[in-house]
Amino acid sequence: MDWTAIRLLYLSELRAALRERAVLINGILIPLLMYPLMMWVMFSGILFVTARFESFASRVEIAGLPAEHRGLLERLEEDEGRIEITEVEAQAGTAAAAYREGVENRLLAGELDAALIFETTVDPPGNAEVSLLSNGSSDQSQAARGRLERALSAERSVWLDRIAEQHGLEGAEWQVFDLRSNNLATGRQMGQFLMGMMIPLFFVLMIANGCVYPAIDSTAGERERNTWETTSTLATRRIHVVTAKYLYVATMGLVAGALNAAAMVVSFRSFLGPLLARMGGGGGSGFAFELPLTSLPILFLTAVLLGALIAAAMMILAAFARTFKEGQSMVTPVILLVIFPVVVLNDPSMEFTPALAGIPVVNVVLLLRQAIAGNVLWLQLGITVLANGAAIAACLWLASRILRVEEIATGSFEGNLFQFLRQHWRPAGGKA
Amino acid sequence: MSTVQVEVQDLSKNFFDQSRGEVRAVQEVNFECRSSEIFGLLGANGAGKTTTLRMISTVLQPTAGTARVLGHDVVSDPVEVRRNLGFYSASTALYPRLTARETLTLFARVNKYPAERTRSRVEEMIERFGLGDYAGARIEKLSSGMKQKVSIARTVVHDPPVLIFDEPTVGLDVLNALDLQKAIQELREDGKAILFSTHIMSEAERLCDRIAIIDKGRIRACDDLEGLRAATSQHYLEDIFVHYVTGNDTTG
Description:
The complex is a heterodimer of chains A (432) and B (252).
Chain A: H1 3-17, H2 21-55, E1 57-63, H3 71-78, E2 82-88, H4 93-109, E3 114-122, E4 127-134, H5 139-166, H6 172-175, H7 187-217, H8 220-224, H9 228-232, H10 238-278, H11 295-318, H12 324-344, H13 362-372, H14 378-404, H15 406-410, H16 417-424
Parallel strand pairs in A: 1-2, 1-3
Antiparallel strand pairs in A: 3-4
Chain B: E1 4-17, E2 21-34, E3 37-42, H1 49-56, E4 64-69, E5 72-73, H2 78-83, E6 85-89, H3 100-110, H4 115-128, H5 144-156, E7 162-166, H6 174-189, E8 193-198, H7 201-207, E9 210-215, E10 218-223, H8 225-232, H9 237-246
Parallel strand pairs in B: 3-8, 3-9, 6-7, 7-8
Antiparallel strand pairs in B: 1-2, 1-4, 4-5, 9-10
Helix pairs in contact in B: 3-4, 3-5
């Protein structure tokens, strides 16, 4: 192998690519900025909505509040945000029906956000049938209803505890199930679980996205710009030119994947962690998004394996394209093909067995998920490397066979991979 | 003393075309080109000039026959052939996102010009072709005249003994075409063996030491201008060309 020529051509491809806006956007900016931006937008959006709700003054009317439950008013005022409470006397008979109708009309007209009507009291004293009225088509009314429900629930718990205590009863004796939930996972483990579900999907997608433009640019792009003939006259073997191009495409995929993973971890820590903590996720300890150190070499290895495999597959298909547009339509199936197993595997119960380690792409995703969770399964790791290595070698062998054919190299072949295989690999007396 | 640098023997090329079937683009072509010589391939569009030159430059593989550059066979030793020749054609574009200097360095290095002398050679080419002010600019930003100069510079930067110019003046204005012709003449004076294809009679008449008239993939005649005149009793190259291609005497 003429490694000097390969290195020179590879560096030229990289230099030229880094001067191309489309490569910079798809291969570097999107992987790097997409998640911080997406999470920042999500974080800001949720904060904005929360702040908006907090600025509302919920207009609530309470009718016939029994003396035993005056504490309900305090609970409502303790809840977040402002509240305007109007108390009215209990109504009876036809007055009660007319009152209720009036309340409904005011709710529908938006003059009132929610109403709580204590209709009848039943034994023992303090017990009552209560109607909670709201308008489901109004955000403000929904928020007021939520506040009333929370206050009622708290008031009921306190009331029942007090009654139970008076009767000498505790917890499960009167509640059937006295549930005390306890999440044993640490915040770090919770964070790793969430990252294990999300990172592989976006990681594969970004590597494929990072390979697309370079794969088309270095094959169909050369034909479209008429530089293929110029390259063909260089004093090196065609296989060296193809190797340099392949390394360039794989590098761009690797860079996109690595940048994406780094950006995702930073985004999780800076935006998703605080957001989940604010929303009460992650239990008492909250989420901690930290990658175990042992996962970093595996993350790098998976990026190399995926970049190398996707680049090889894309270059095989893009080799048939004569224009950029043709290249795009030929390469798109590769993205779908690599994304499909990742979506299917997004089931946390999926076990990483040695058999699954033999399936390219699938094995890389499962290996990555295990690594993020802090587990390294050495047997599966070895099978993954071998299986992907074999798939990459097969793709490169096919690519070199294809590009050796003159009509493909010169761009005069009219067709795609399947037509090519039909014409050149006939079972008997084929031209291969 | 000039030596044979390019030998072409019974060179043929067939293509398969879906609508026309098997097309015989070049048929049993024979010629040779010596150092300090401009050898012209004169033919109409589609006569087989470009296909012949592409086979010699190893871009295409011959269906039959052989071609050698400095004794290296185009099929069995294509890398050595490419190392010893520079190929220029109107359809070989430059890499738009590299600068002129980067392009020349890449071609010198990949074409095995000694690494320690590459920098000075590149600067020499920049000086010789008047690229100084634009050497650091990306090719895509250059005018077509400047691009053409960079193209010639990248063709000769590794100092090959054989040069191929395939219809090099197509699409150029008169002044740029004359500049290019002057550069080709200077390269002949440097001792290069030059294969030059054209369909422009005046260009062939002005530049070529010997001319092969090619038609429908076959060489109809091959000699210097005086020899062609003597063989056809025609003075003008245009009349000589018509004589061989149509078999008609245009002078009446």
